[in-house]
Amino acid sequence: MAENQDVRQALGDHAARQLANATKTVPQYSIITPRWLVHLLQWQPVEAGIFRLNKVKNAAQIRVACSRRDEAELPQTFVDYEDQPREYFLNAVTTILDVHTRVSDLYSSPHDQIKEQLRLTIETIKERQESELINNPEYGLLANVDPTQRISTLTGAPTPDDLDELIAKVWKEPGFFLAHPLAIAAFGRECTRRGVPPPTVSLFGSQFLTWRGLPLIPSDKVPIDEDGKTKILLLRVGDKRQGVVGLYQPGLAGEQSPGLSVRFMGINRNAIASYLISLYCSLAVLTEDALAVLDDVEIGKYHDYPDTYK
User: Fold this and answer.
1) Which runs of consecutive H residues, i.e. helices, occur in 56-179?
2) Can you give the pTM of this predicted structure?
3) CB 261 within 8 A of CB 252
4) In the 8-state DSSP scheme, what is residue 108?
5) b/e map of 186-210 (b: 16 or more CB within 10 Å)?
6) What is the Cα–Cα distance from 208 to 230, expressed in whole angstroms?
7) Inter-residue contact 140 to 281 (CB < 8 Å)
8) Which of 82, 154, 213, 293 is the most exposed place for a label (fewest CB within 10 A)?
């Protein structure tokens, strides 16, 4: 009887799988994020990679009069401009992708090896782009906050009162908050503690927490320091609103999307094909009150709600 139990009556799974085609995914890359900041900015094309930001000088000295129905002499005035306006130069995020022709020739079914290598490299470059828009020491958001537009948290954790203070700083058509996901979670806890859970809004097919109607946009590029503290930013966007604008170079050779180009550099004597991938971008804050930041945001504060769950 024991010998009969070892006799198989049908083809086994392991052997059968040798004739089956496995369904293969493209490479999954965990660092890829939605990059909401890039989507929400208005992007301004620039010529020759230079953007000159002209501003009014001594605006308070512009004199006007309200008609008094008499023949009083009207004030004379003019609008003066800054003599040395700031100029922004586009920054390049660049790399060279190498693919051996043997690999692309032999192993491109069902997924094209060159296409996937380019896709993953471009995604990495775009992730770096969003990081530079926030953290670049020259043009990044955090480096261009006017000192008068900086405030600190009242108690450490981000509260509704703190975000109201930010709105008071960027009160002329504010667009959205920008914060690390852990900071948004900390704000949600403070709202829950106060019994004012923030409503949500649907953007780009995703749900976002809001405060006073303004969405809290998450980005893991907003830094968290060693003490577990981060920042929350509030932006006004668009050139017509004198807000924050992104800058890019149009009409690049090999342009794949605004500011992004891919150019074939040739095949060397080792049969390696090379592709130059470049992304040119920058960012400008058109007026000081278009951007404010909440400093010293603690993300590790939690609360017990004993009465809530009885």
Assistant:
1) 101-106, 113-135, 160-169
2) 0.91
3) yes
4) -
5) bbebbbebeeeebeeeeeeeeebbb
6) 19
7) no
8) 213
Exposure pattern of 214-249 as b/e (b: 16+ CB <10 Å)?
Answer: bbbbbbebbeeeeeebbbbbbbbbbeebbbbbbbbb
The candidate with the shortest Cα–Cα distance to 212, out of 154, 173, 156, is 173
> DSSP letters of 205-270?
TEEEEEETTEEEEE-TTS---TTSEEEEEEE-B-TTTT-EEEEE--S-TTEEETTEEEEEEEE-TT
139 against 305, higher pLDDT:
139
SS3 state at 60? helix
Q: Name, in order, each residue with C-beta under 8 angstroms of 191's C-beta and a sequence gap of 6 or more.
A: 160, 197, 198
Task: Convert the pLDDT of each residue in 161-214 to its tens digit.
Answer: 999 999 999 999 999 999 999 999 999 999 999 999 999 999 999 999 999 999
What's the token pair of residue 99? 């693919």
**Sign for the pseudo-dihedral over CA of 182, 223, 242, 56:** positive
Q: Give the tokens for residue 92.
A: 């390049």
Task: Evaluate whether 34 touches 206 at the Cβ level (below 8 Å).
Answer: yes
d(CA 88, CA 113): 37
End-to-end CA, the chain: 62
Between CA 62 and CA 76 the distance in angstroms is 9
Q: What tokens were used for 69?
A: 């129905």
Helix axes 181-193 and 160-169, enclosed angle (nearest 10): 120
